[in-house]
Automatic annotation (TrEMBL):
This is DDE Tnp4 domain-containing protein. It comes from Phytophthora nicotianae P1569.
């Protein structure tokens, strides 16, 4: 913002006005700098009036201009402070997170780990070894600064959060145990699921040759009771909901 040379910086009013205009110049979404009141204000002469002279028309206009400057200056300062308060980041809610080592040890002692996570502790550790490289936080210190001192989740906590939810747990209880917000909970879950899709070790390997097809069929037949499953090479886990066509009386119109 260019300041006219005739503005007297000894006047606190003019100085505050210039500072406010410079601050408002950074607010791209507010069209204050093109207001008719600001455009109408021109350079003001700093030469004092002659002693003993009565206020004339130029003096009255100068006083009105100064009053308009004061009002606009106050408006600009209020708008700047409102914008700063509006963009002020709220302090995060810090929750005490449960130690995974204590949590997992307690579930193992109670023989409840398999029922809680739908997998054994060995399978969980193996899955963590595969997905850990996809769940590591890129910049630890940047994450701490962005969250105002709250450390980021470890890959173990991320996997525990996602597996608990996929096993049928409620996100209300899981996020409280993990110590994260609702938005962070869903962000972590999707991050884990994307990591599962990106992991080559977890990608489905379909049999391609005839020997692989025969080996897969024999393996499924050996796993079935009395070998009733034959000529099966792949299985997709799912659930089919049985439905029927509604009757005419049930449909109404």
């Amino acid at each position: 913002v260019s300041v006219p040379r005739t503005v007297h910086f000894g006047c606190m009013r003019c100085y505050a006005f210039c500072i406010s205009v410079q601050l408002m110049h950074s607010l791209k979404d507010l069209d204050i700098l093109s207001s008719p009141l600001l455009i109408a204000m021109g350079p003001v002469s700093t030469r004092p009036p002659h002693p003993g002279t009565r206020p004339c028309a130029p003096t009255a206009r100068r006083q009105r201009r100064w009053k308009a400057e004061d009002e606009l200056c106050g408006l600009l300062v209020c708008l700047v402070m409102f914008k700063r308060l509006q963009n002020k980041k709220k302090d995060p809610v810090v929750r005490e997170r449960v130690s995974w080592r204590i949590h997992a040890t307690t579930l193992i002692q109670e023989s409840a780990f398999q029922r809680y996570y739908r997998m054994s502790i060995e399978t969980f550790q193996e899955l963590l070894c595969i997905l850990g490289k996809y769940l590591v936080v890129v910049d630890y210190y940047q994450s701490v600064r962005r969250s105002r001192g709250v450390p980021p989740l470890t890959p173990t906590a991320m996997l525990q959060c996602a597996v608990s939810w996929l096993a049928g747990g409620s996100y209300h209880h899981i996020r409280v145990i993990t110590g994260i917000s609702t938005a962070s909970f869903y962000r972590v879950d999707y991050k884990v699921m994307y990591a599962i899709n990106d992991a080559e070790e977890l990608a489905p390997q379909f049999p391609k040759t005839s020997d692989e097809l025969k080996a897969a069929s024999a393996a499924f037949q050996a796993c079935s009771n009395y070998g009733v499953i034959s000529d099966c090479v792949e299985v997709i886990d799912g659930w089919l909901c049985p439905i029927r066509v509604p009757r005419q009386a049930e449909c109404g119109r």
